[in-house]
# Entry
Amino acid sequence: MTDPQHTTEPGYDIADEYRPEPPQPPPAPLWMDGSIRVGIHTSIAGDIAQALDSAHRLGCNALQIFSLSPRMWPRGSGSRIAETDAARFRARRAELQLGPLVVHDNYLINLASPDPVLRVRSIQAFHDELVRAVALGADFLVAHPGSGRGSSARQAIEEMARALRQATRGLKLDGLRILLENTSGMGTALGARFEELAAILDAAPDLPLGVCLDTAHMFHAGYDIRTEAGLERTVEAIERTVGLDRVFVLHMNDSKTPLGSRVDRHEHIGKGKVGLEAFRRILNHPMLSTKGAHGLAGRAFILETPLEAPGDDRRNVRTLWKLVGMTARQAPGAEDGFSMLRRPAKRKKKTKAATQRAQRARKANRANRAKRAGNRR
Ligand SMILES: [Zn+2]
Ligand SMILES: [Zn+2]
# Structure
């Protein structure tokens, strides 16, 4: 049946003349083109922009950094990044086409702390983290959910949501999203269960939040991602709680400690208790991979593996690319022999005893470095 009113020619209406075009949504960033994004945590020592070149030379197309030394409380104006440095950083990142850019927050921050002094300090420090991340043009700021110490989980979750709100107050986040990272379940740390992460997200629906899932932490917390069936159960648990569409970053780490250990020690991909095949399944899982129809475009796989010997970083990056079926040559910008850790300069000929002494010293050094690095990200 035709409605006569709709069959008549529309009359000329002067209001149609200069109707402005609806504003175009900003174009999606390049890293959301559906390609696989692989990155590694790179050092900002010396010059922050150097971290970008390190990632590029290691064959990454994404990266994670600290925006300041992660183990001390910054003081006063020292917590800001000079605009000239930030501008140089943003320009170099655009040149190298790296993305997403993930910033990891300071280890000392505890937004769920029941101690009022530590709480205020944490909120201020997290506010500064946000300011720096925005200045650098970061896409994500990863934060540990903190620890309620003596208080109940429910109380800690509420504190956490309130602290996040206070830290973001008055800030223009410019597309920056805060990602809460799952934890190994050491002590009273929040976030070992996906339910707790979901509860924090739900307690602050007004904030741009999301989740970063660390494979080693999941394993430490008792999610058995080693097997196909175990991974399926874990993916289902994620979907039921936080929802996969809120998982923007995966930290890719194998584990030195066993399933359910609650002790956070990272290992090279394929060399730990999780194993290579598990990482192949994760990277190619239709719900996790950016290749799959259900994968989130731009979801990044970021390594936080130990750096104990020169080349450890490069080898782990290569392993991830291999697991998605790409050779090192196809990986973007990979440079043969590059590592963030440099081999100590070679000395002249030595006696056998001196060589053995040096070997022992190197071994002890490596062990110390590994201990200091602590692998607690
Ligand atoms: Zn960790
Ligand atoms: Zn992590």
Observations:
- Confidence is low (pLDDT under 50) at residues 1-5.
